[in-house]
Amino acid sequence: MRTLLITGPGGSGRSTLAAATAQAAARTGTRTLVLGADRADTLGAALGVATGAAPTQAAENLTAWRPDATESFRADLTAFQDRAATALELLGAARLDAEELTPLPGAEELALLRALRDAALSERYDLLVVDLPPTPHALALLALPEELRRYLRRLLPAERQAARALRPVLGRLAGVPMPSEWLYDTAGRWDVELAAVEAVLADRNTTVRLVAEPGPAGADAVRAAGLALALRGLRPDVLVANRVLPESVEDTWLAGLNAQQRKTLDEWQGTYDVRTVRHLGHDPRGTDDLAALAVPGADEAGSAVEWPVTDRLAEDGVLVWHIPLPGAIRDELDLIRRGDELVVTVGRFRRIVPLPSALRRCTVAGAALREGELRVRFAPDPDLWPQGR
After folding, report:
1. Which domains does the chain have, with CATH numbers?
2. In this structure, are residues 14 and 46 in contact, taking their beta carbons and an 8 Å threshold?
3. Contact in structure between 151 and 25 (CB atoms under 8 Å)
4. In this structure, are residues 322 and 308 in contact, taking their beta carbons and an 8 Å threshold?
5. Residues in Cβ contact with 165 at an 8 Å cutoff, skipping those fewer than 6 apart
6. Looking only at Cα atoms, what is the longest distance across the chain?
7. How much helix, strand and coil, in percent to the nearest 5, is found in the chain?
8. How far lies 246's CA from each of 214, 243, 250, 278, in Å?
9. Model confidence band, residue 217 (pLDDT cutoffs 50, 70, 90)
10. What is the DSSP code (8-state) at residue 94?
11. Of the residues 90, 142, 250, 257, which has the maximum number of CB atoms within 10 A of its CB?
């Protein structure tokens, strides 16, 4: 199944275009599920059908779903309390009833990720269209599975589970209680769930699509989104320029806005595959308006951003890791080597990535940012690199 993740700045019309894209695919006979998480049900308003916790038939071949973060949060926390009952009793902690639980920040994102995983594994659909949150939240959402799995591996390493029989003895020797079995079991379940979501996001049939309204604010948002996506190893298939005015307008008040849009579109053309969607003159509502929007098809070919390693040992004695970072600024770039990981920070975006196996036996020999690509040089460590290589 193909998965299309649609995001863009707040107010750019991404939910409307997600609905239009899903509707257009369904009309061709493609079994389509459109997934959203907006509390205000913007997706349902565009489709003309209220959406909720249960999948809703919006049209022939088209299903809409808005997962219930409240119910998911209550179920997870109630199950966690059941597994940790012994520890909670030792602490004298009172259990929380499901009725008094209110979702904490991040619950909606986790519910959306779980729904994305479940939908992607379903065989009922050919296409999954996901209306992601506005770009800043969407970028954090895409990074969440990888980051949480990293935290779990550091806090509860899997190899420590081999010492299950020794935990009581170690606890007596150390004088402090050791982590219980339920804690490792819970971490294991979370890791499996997060790995499944991460696999969907990294799948070659998963594509990210950007939606923005051409103009200074849209240009800034697209520049930041493109850089952040590249840092995650992703590249949008197309950039949808939404609410584009006709090339010639008679209204003098609109002439300035039109010129602003044309300038931004020209800038985007050199970097992205830009598709324009004209302004209807009103907010699109219902199936007729959605059909009038000339949205790109869902079968566009997106691609991952490759981070290749170049062997220059014979010429310069180094290996070079090429990390594409379009739009990066040298003054906002920072690199830190931590063991077998490289911490890459670009402005407000950061990612901790494991080094390729060959580079783990090297030391960092320098780095340079050229033409939107970070090139990190690694020199073989004599103590780790095999002799004769």
Report:
1. 2-69+103-303 (3.40.50.300), 306-380 (2.60.40.790)
2. no
3. no
4. yes
5. none
6. 84
7. 45, 25, 35
8. 13, 10, 10, 7
9. very high
10. P
11. 142
